[in-house]
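Box 4.2: Ligand-aware structure prediction
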Amino acid sequence: MYPLLTEAIAIERVTIAIRDLAPHLQHRKIIQLSDLHYDGYSLSDRTLQDAIAQVNAEDPDLILLTGDYVTRDPELIHPLAQQLQALHSRWGVIASLGNHDNHGRPYRQMIIEALQAAGLTVLWNAIAYPWGPDFPVIGLADLWSSDFQPQTLLASLPPNLPRLVLSHNPDSAARLQPFRVDLQLSGHTHGGQIVLPTGEPLPEILLRLRRVVTRWMSTTLGEECDHVIQHWEWVQGHHYVGTNQLYVNRGLGSYFPGRFNCSPEITVLTLNPA
Ligand SMILES: [Fe+2]
């Protein structure tokens, strides 16, 4: 491991109001994890095991994972999937994929099969019904893939049916605005990783600077940041996008140089009727 700036895992607790929520689903507890980046550098086994223990201690009804299990080497999904078998919830673990899980079809297939072999349900443009027909969970293809075509899945659902959407990249919320999305769970941003006391993520500031300084002063980091996300206002936390709700988890893994004022996150979401 490179030395990384690290912070303890934070548990964020959020109550989400859902229209038309069936009475038997009130107060159900969902846990979200995202962006594990199990690549030998970005996530230590200690942090992973700590996260799994904290998730299980919450006694969740459902666990949802929003992608980026590995970074570049798909083979590392095997040791990761073995460890993810330790996650426990009443209605299982459902996983969607991120851009780092999709470097070509064979690469993606290896990720999917390893997670399935560990007992997870994996959704790539597919719907699961862990709690029965009253509450579909839709896992979309990653926004940067040519498979990102949400309209068919979302339009296939009855309009009065509440639904939860797993979509790795929060920028997809803009594309999903024409559809009913009661709750979208995303990751991808790592919360910006380095956040100033003002609450502004450093990558966003570098990006803004890059636009005003002369070209020779622009940094590679700035260009990377430009590519990561367009909607910096959705870098982390709970947002309304029109009437749709979006929650962006800061992730568990960290790229170099690590995190400052931006702890790795476990999200505990409780569903309430609107
Ligand atoms: Fe990521």
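In the box above, the bound molecule is fe (ii) ion. Residues 10-194+235-273 form a domain with the Purple Acid Phosphatase; chain A, domain 2 fold (CATH 3.60.21.10).
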